[in-house]
Amino acid sequence: MKILNVDQIRALDQATIQHEPIAPINLMERAALAFVDWFVDRFPATTPLKIFCGLGNNGGDGLAIARLLLERDYPLEVFVVRYAPRESDDFMHNHRRLKLVTDNIRYVELSHDIPPMPHNEVVIDAILGSGLSRPAEGIVKSAIEAINRSPATVVSVDIASGLYADQPNAPEDVIVEPDYTVAFQLPKLAFLLPGNARYTGDWQTVDIQLHKRFIDKAPTPYYYTRPDEARLLLHKRDRYAHKGTFGHALLLAGSYGKIGAAVLSARACLRSGVGLLTVQVPGCGYPVLQTAVPEAMCRPDTHEHVLSGTTEVETTSPADFTTVGIGPGIGKASETLAMLKALLPTLTKPMVIDADALNLLGENRELLDQLPAGSILTPHPKEFERLTAPWQNDYEKLDRLREFARKYRVVVVLKGAHTAVATPEGDIHFNATGNPGLSTGGTGDVLTGVLTALLAQRYDPVEAAVLGVYAHGLAGDQVAEQRGQIGMTATDVVDALRWA
Ligand SMILES: NC(=O)C1=CN([C@@H]2O[C@H](COP(=O)(O)OP(=O)(O)OC[C@H]3O[C@@H](n4cnc5c(N)ncnc54)[C@H](O)[C@@H]3O)[C@@H](O)[C@H]2O)[C@@H](O)CC1
Ligand SMILES: [K+]
pTM of this prediction? Predict the structure, then answer.
């Protein structure tokens, strides 16, 4: 699913109006109906409502929503926040229609016009939408502050009032903090940025049948991967397949005290369909790995405590494996850095790089040029910062991410809520699955195992990253459903991996 910017959304509305064709006021009615369909499923008709409307089309939506909810017998009051003399045409139209059916419309011009909003009420926020062009001030600001202070449940129409859809807000901006956002047709880029979590609440999109051909043609670097889109990426298994079909992966993981990282990664790799798996661990990890993961072959490093790259027995060179995954628990010992330096020039196929392997790259940036094209890097934000430079806000971070992926022709999986997968073409795919329960030690090692398995099965690297991140998050969601987020462990996530 594409994410469009505000100018494109405006053009999309116009294209729908022209080509469907549909009158603007009827398009607004369709949007209001879609909101109401969502709303009535969640809040019973006995819920007392306060609907705050601005003077633009977001406010017009609010007025239409009020009329449609009145038809469904919700007890409600409408508050028009009068911050300017000008009202949009469709606002005026809906204002007239609403006045025909209710006297419960108040006008908020001064702070004392703002009503109390007790906890049993639902507030619908239709003050400002995607047309926001400056920070909220005056009575708009006061109304937003009152909504945020109130214990009422807050639902924002299209976007929280005061939040820019596709550019950074200033830290001092006053923005509605909703419990829910119901957005029309497409998510806004702002919803996917970690710094905005307070300003989106639980967000959803509702279909208002905007012009499909316009959406298909609109150029954008930003995508949101819906579950149905992710599932389409899954390769079907050939009935005549054998273990060679699914590749032979080499995982370089673990150091003294962190052999668990190798175990988790190896288990996740095996649970993600790899044909054969060899794990190279420091000598001390050999008995652990052979016991904990009997399905994997294990080659002990000659170094007892860290990976140095050399092994006792003459073995296959890393370049001869289908893919290599490196990083979980490896530490930053000089021997390990030497191994990485020797390894990179020998590899040509896409590989997976995680954790301290990324930190070693950050400290030795000349190595970045040697990454095989299409490799997948899986940093969390701190690790990514070590690979690049600090950023001022989430938008700058996205720019940096796109730039980095393009420059080094790699796929970067920036981990976090709505993990962002940046492609060598400079696109970003945001993930839909996962929850805060995944913020626990070892889940990153699991992701490395998953991605290594997908590369071994010869998935295209971008598809591997998008699918792998989706499946990993989904496993986390399944664990959260069964045992809650707090008790979640990385082992649970491995066990919950499902590929169907
Ligand atoms: N255009 C369409 O056909 C549709 C638009 N829809 C709604 O229209 C909204 C966008 O409507 P508008 O473009 O009218 O914009 P808004 O309703 O977001 O803003 C209203 C007006 O307020 C002004 N404004 C901007 N920032 C302000 C601030 N901080 N304080 C005070 N005034 C400010 C702007 O000049 C703008 O014209 C969407 O979010 C959505 O809710 C939906 O009805 C779907 C269809
Ligand atoms: K709003």
Answer: 0.96
